[in-house]
Design goal:
Blueprint (H helix, E strand, L loop, with lengths): L1 E5 L5 E9 L2 E9 L7 H15 L6 E4 L3 H13 L4 E4 L1 H12 L5 H16 L2 H10 L12 H14 L1 H9 L1 H4 L2 H4 L1 H10 L2 H25 L9 H14 L8 H15 L2 H8 L2 H4 L3 H5 L2 H14 L3 H15 L12
Parallel strand pairs: 4-5
Antiparallel strand pairs: 1-2, 2-3
Helix pairs in contact: 1-2, 3-11, 3-13, 4-10, 4-11, 6-11, 11-12, 14-17
């Protein structure tokens, strides 16, 4: 995994980590400050790292979606045809959030929430007043990424909906200087507006399931590869079930599908789902009927294992796995 970040002193650092079933291992850091990280240089970094580890030991190289990485990945594929370039799942899910927050009503409601929040926190006396109403709870709950923070901020505000309304209609507020100034009146109008809260609920129903996906791919409890395909499917299922009107989520699904199809989805994810017994046996009928999933599975087998005799053996042994025979034990529910 190539993790690019900027240090506090302005240096561009690329951390190289190796992930295996035993966990993640930090390999080295490369200072990329003195040279532009164009595709040729990134390919050189890919190649040197692959050669030092051994190409036969590598299944994928994980990077963000920067164009130089994609181009370097194409060069890598020509040299190492069995190795996948996989976009970082957390980065890709964050891009989905970024796209969603550009759309109305999500952009509007988040900007309104932020305006109210900043108005309050920039005025210590008003902040203290609010905390008396919210029982010392703040409105922002920091998270690893700004989009997760945005979601959690809306969730926290919704949690405090009645207390915030009480604050803005209280004599203490309306008779204060805050209640008379323009931004104070604007904040009160937002909090007392039914459409604001309707949009908050709309945003939470959309973003809640996606935040779960983000937490899964950004967590360290288990490798997300075998769960991502299913997680995206389930997130969409939950979102769809939350609305009776398809128009409420149609654009969001277009955003998810575009990112999933063009960037995030990989045959590796398909194979990982098929070969994940925790998910396969409980969803066997749906998985077996998912043609794109199987196309990805077979594509992955062909890419990783060029020898046809080994491919044939895998196909033969798959029925043992499917029927939960031998080492795979009894099928769930039987």
């Amino acid at each position: 995994m190539m993790d690019k970040w900027t240090a506090r002193n302005g240096k561009m650092i690329i951390n190289i980590l190796v992930n295996s079933p035993k966990g993640s291992l930090f390999l080295e850091s490369v200072d990329a400050s003195d040279s532009s990280t164009d595709s040729t240089k990134m390919y050189s970094l890919f190649k040197n790292t692959i050669d030092s580890i051994g190409a036969e030991n590598i299944v994928q190289v994980v990077t963000d979606n920067a164009s130089e990485n994609v181009k370097a990945g194409d060069m890598m594929s020509a040299c190492y045809p069995h190795i996948y370039l996989t976009p970082c799942a957390a980065h890709s899910v964050n891009l989905i959030f970024g796209d969603i927050f550009k759309e109305r009503p999500f952009s509007t409601v988040f900007n309104q929430a932020i305006r109210v929040h900043f108005y309050i926190v920039q005025r210590p006396l008003l902040l203290n007043m609010m905390k008396r109403f919210t029982k010392q709870r703040s409105l922002v709950k920091p998270a690893k990424t700004r989009f997760a923070t945005a979601f959690l901020t809306l969730a926290r505000m919704y949690e405090q909906k009645s207390n915030l309304k009480k604050l803005f209609v209280s004599d203490e507020y309306t008779s204060s200087a805050y209640g008379r100034e323009a931004r104070g009146r604007e904040s009160a109008d937002i909090i007392l507006s039914p459409s604001f809260w309707n949009n908050v609920v709309h945003a939470l129903k959309i973003d809640g399931p996606l935040v779960k996906v983000l937490r899964m791919v950004d967590g360290e409890q288990r490798p997300p590869m075998g769960y991502l395909y299913e997680a995206i499917y389930r997130a969409k299922e939950v979102i769809q079930a939350s609305f009776s009107d398809q128009r409420k989520y149609k654009r969001v699904f277009e955003i998810i599908d575009k990112r999933w199809d063009s960037k995030l989805h990989s045959p590796l994810h398909a194979a990982a789902l098929v070969l994940n017994p925790e998910l396969f046996y409980d969803n066997e009928e749906r998985i077996l009927g998912d043609e794109p999933l199987w196309n990805g599975y077979y594509e992955c087998i062909e890419k990783l294992i060029p020898e046809e005799s080994v491919q044939d053996k895998i196909t033969e042994q798959f029925s043992i796995y499917r029927n939960a025979e031998q080492l795979f034990g009894k099928k769930h529910g039987h």
